[in-house]
Amino acid sequence: GNSVTQMEGPVTLSEEAFLTINCTYTATGYPSLFWYVQYPGEGLQLLLKATKADDKGSNKGFEATYRKETTSFHLEKGSVQVSDSAVYFCALRYTGGGNKLTFGTGTQLKVEL
Amino acid sequence: GAGVSQTPSNKVTEKGKYVELRCDPISGHTALYWYRQSLGQGPEFLIYFQGTGAADDSGLPNDRFFAVRPEGSVSTLKIQPAEQGDSAVYVCASRSGRIGDPGNTIYFGEGSWLTVV
């Protein structure tokens, strides 16, 4: 079956540090890949996505590249801010399955001054 | 409304009681999803509606869980009887579901926190 594995948190960084959150997936075929973010007290929000191999998704300074050869979709940001503190979820979606999402367990990011 | 709306935001109930959780999707969205999120976990798929019908209910854990969407808009997730292991956040999401537009975004509600004591 489909599954997503992401690094455990919490990840604690100083402001302006470089961020990497690892995500790997297992799936048959070619799913679309997503990063969602959940700020405290809010619902999940789409951060970025990539629909095919070698695509790079980017938004708000975050980016992730769909790597088919390593089945990975690592999230990166060059300089984090305190306002980036949130829980980040990697997810995959199959178009043939009603577009339902399979999520990883989430990684909490804490950015300190 | 502007986003996916869920009520109640918090509910505490006793073991054995009946629970109803409501989801009001974004206006015009034909696809609706229910997920369950336990502490420290990602959301897990429960059921997916396309219009009024349940297109995929493979994630419902057992027959104590049931969901309806009688008019293709608002959906209700029902749990009867509730058990302590059902304590979690129940999250609803919707998507426009236009035919031929598989890349459209899924929008999530803030969830209903259910605690069964």
Fill in the keyword field for this structure.
heterodimer, A: 113 residues, mainly beta, six-stranded mixed β-sheet, four-stranded antiparallel β-sheet, 12 strands, 0% helix, B: 117 residues, seven-stranded mixed β-sheet, 11 strands
Characterise the protein shown here.
- The complex is a heterodimer of chains A (113) and B (117).
- Chain A is mainly β and 113 residues long.
- Chain A is built from no helices and twelve strands.
- Chain A has strands at residues 3-6, 11-14, 19-21, 23-26, 32-38, 45-50, 56-59, 62-65, 75-77, 86-93, 101-103, 107-112.
- In chain A, the strands form three sheets. In chain A, strands 2, 5, 6, 10, 11 and 12 form a six-stranded mixed sheet that branches. In chain A, strands 3-9-8-7 form a four-stranded antiparallel sheet, with no helix packed on it.
- In chain A, strand 5 (32-38) and strand 6 form a beta hairpin.
- The radius of gyration of chain A is 14 Å and the shape is globular.
- The termini of chain A are far apart.
- The mean pLDDT of chain A is 93.
- Helices cover 0% and strands 47% of the residues of chain B.
- The N and C termini of chain B lie far apart (33 Å).
- In chain B, strands 2, 4, 5, 6, 9, 10 and 11 form a seven-stranded mixed sheet that branches. A four-stranded antiparallel sheet of chain B has the order 1-3-8-7, with no helix packed on it.
- Chain B is an all-beta fold and 117 residues long.
- The mean pLDDT of chain B is 92.
- The interface between A and B is medium-sized, with 23 and 27 residues.
